[in-house]
Design goal:
single chain, alpha+beta, 4-stranded mixed beta sheet, 1 helix, 4 strands
Length: 78
């Protein structure tokens, strides 16, 4: 089995805050700004994985978080 070196996360704008979600490991967090949300995500993932056997989860030691940001298209009305 090949161990994953990255944990994928999606960042999107919610109604009042930004939301980041890692579907692979079941972590969700939020923040008022993008930077705050990313900091919260890093902390939440670290806490979630603390004491876990990463190999059993299919993860390599010290994985990185790969964040994709969802954005809405702006529509210009002429």
């Amino acid at each position: 089995m090949t161990l994953q070196h990255t944990i994928k996360a999606v960042l999107r704008k919610g109604e009042k805050q930004y939301v980041a979600e890692c579907l692979e490991i079941g972590v969700v967090t939020q923040g008022a700004t993008i930077n705050e949300t990313l900091e919260n995500l890093q902390e939440a993932v670290s806490l979630h994985l603390e004491g876990e056997n990463l190999a059993e989860l299919g993860l390599a030691p010290d994985p990185s978080i790969l964040v994709t940001m969802e954005m809405e298209l702006l529509r210009h009305v002429a």
